[in-house]
Write a sequence for this structure.
């Protein structure tokens, strides 16, 4: 098998990290808009409301809202075949529960899609990328509340009908499996735990509502336009056992169960034995409506998209629970302590394809690093080129040698954007440098890095440039 000419080379972003204009033209607050910036390695703080004289990175981000034409022209210069972006729910429905959409918000995305079409760049659109309207969190408890299924479905129907001739590829929830993150399922589900609340019950209930919403939206989208391709999206944490001990191999299985939990339901259409076993492991319960079984069955996705950044190594602790081993001795680490493992991407593609037999789409992969402008005014980011090159080569092996069906490769943060984990700007992923620092200073000017011209060669050669020698 070879990479065909329809392969989607490109890049990816998210509205709350990229657009800015956080209350412009009728947009409402979303959950990212009340997250403060932070220093390197410090967890971000979440406020209940906007506080004066506090820096919130999403408010301006890097101002795609006013600079979309400039940025899309740069993507076109690189030769992008596809661009992953998200629609900000609160830009269309400021509170999330209105009946009449915000026309100014709809018009903005019309202009973006038209600009992409001018350069024959396919939009890959995420419907919910850590951008739940704040009103839905405060008024309804976010995805704990089954009412959000209807609110989300109505929002999706609105944009499906508006853009049915402009967008073909849709992604429902970004990294939905992170809802089972014990520490803070805030980004994925807008959940802030209350005192004395059974966290397992809340997570399972919110997850079920999101999974029913996912299936409902898939069915709806296919009715509106049978040519729509609607996929799920998970973070795939390729996991190794710490040793060849059977217990450590069991640790891998247990560690991966929460991730397969979501993909099983979205791809297979029902709660598998992996899912029911996870309920018991968590010690949580939730109620299902009578119609949910049929909705999940009929609303399976067309493809699986996923993010891949690093691999994890685990072992069992004394309580027979999987725990992460901090350092895999065979792998180097990034500046932010993430393992660098290109072969892990090939293994991830194989594991997912073997389990689900659905087309796969790499919609996030990249290196967060500190970029410096040299004395010639250039950014020599060879470390990024090396990282991406090694990962893309392993992807090509998965396609050619393992016969895995892959729709495309989208590098995360193809232009420098705000880090979702810390709110920093200095954790840069892009091929394009943006003049802005962690305090919000800078003129937001754009400047191609060395990797910009490298990626252009990769795309125009359909990947052959990497195999023939760089």
């Amino acid at each position: 098998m070879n990479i065909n000419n329809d392969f989607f080379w490109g890049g990816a972003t998210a509205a709350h990290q990229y657009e800015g204009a956080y209350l412009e033209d009728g947009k409402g607050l979303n959950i990212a808009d009340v997250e403060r910036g932070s220093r390197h390695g410090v967890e971000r703080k979440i406020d209940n409301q906007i506080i004066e004289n506090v820096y919130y990175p999403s408010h301006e981000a890097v101002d795609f809202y006013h600079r979309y034409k400039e940025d899309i022209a740069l993507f076109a210069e690189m030769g992008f075949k596809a661009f992953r972006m998200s629609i900000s729910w609160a830009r269309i429905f400021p509170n999330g529960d209105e009946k009449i959409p915000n026309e100014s918000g709809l018009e903005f995305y019309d202009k973006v899609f038209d600009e992409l079409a001018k350069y024959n760049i396919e939009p890959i659109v995420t419907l919910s990328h850590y951008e739940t309207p704040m009103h839905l969190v405060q008024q309804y408890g976010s995805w704990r509340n089954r009412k959000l299924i209807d609110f989300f479905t109505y929002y999706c129907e609105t944009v499906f009908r508006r853009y049915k001739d402009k967008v073909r590829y849709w992604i429902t929830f970004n990294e939905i499996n992170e809802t089972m993150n014990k520490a803070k399922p805030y980004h994925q589900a807008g959940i802030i735990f209350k005192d004395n609340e059974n966290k397992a019950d809340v997570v399972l209930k919110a997850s079920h509502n999101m999974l029913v919403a996912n299936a409902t939206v898939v069915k709806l989208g296919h009715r509106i336009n049978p040519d729509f391709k609607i996929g799920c999206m998970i973070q795939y944490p390729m996991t190794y056992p710490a040793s060849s001990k059977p217990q450590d191999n069991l640790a891998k299985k247990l560690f991966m169960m929460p991730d397969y939990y979501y993909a099983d339901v979205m791809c297979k259409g029902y709660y598998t034995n992996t899912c029911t076993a996870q309920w018991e492991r968590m010690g949580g319960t939730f109620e299902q409506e009578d119609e949910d079984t049929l909705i999940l069955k009929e609303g399976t996705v067309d493809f699986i998209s996923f993010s891949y950044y690093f691999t994890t190594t685990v072992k069992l602790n004394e309580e027979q629970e999987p725990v992460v081993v901090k350092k895999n001795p065979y792998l180097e680490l990034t500046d932010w302590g993430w393992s660098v493992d290109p072969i892990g991407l090939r293994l991830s593609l194989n594991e997912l394809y073997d389990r689900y037999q659905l087309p796969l789409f790499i919609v996030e992969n990249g290196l967060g690093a500190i970029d410096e402008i040299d004395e010639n005014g250039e950014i020599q980011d060879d470390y990024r080129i090396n990282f991406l090159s090694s990962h893309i080569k392993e992807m090509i092996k998965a396609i050619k040698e393992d016969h895995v069906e892959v729709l495309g490769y989208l590098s995360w943060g193809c232009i420098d954007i705000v880090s979702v984990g810390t709110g920093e700007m200095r954790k840069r992923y892009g091929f394009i440098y943006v003049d802005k620092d962690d305090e919000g200073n800078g003129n937001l000017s754009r400047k191609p890095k060395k990797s910009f011209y490298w990626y252009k060669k990769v795309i125009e050669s359909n990947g052959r440039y990497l195999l023939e020698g760089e």
Notes: The longest helix spans residues 199-224. Residues 8-468 form a domain with the TIM Barrel fold (CATH 3.20.20.80). The first strand starts at residue 8 and ends at 12.
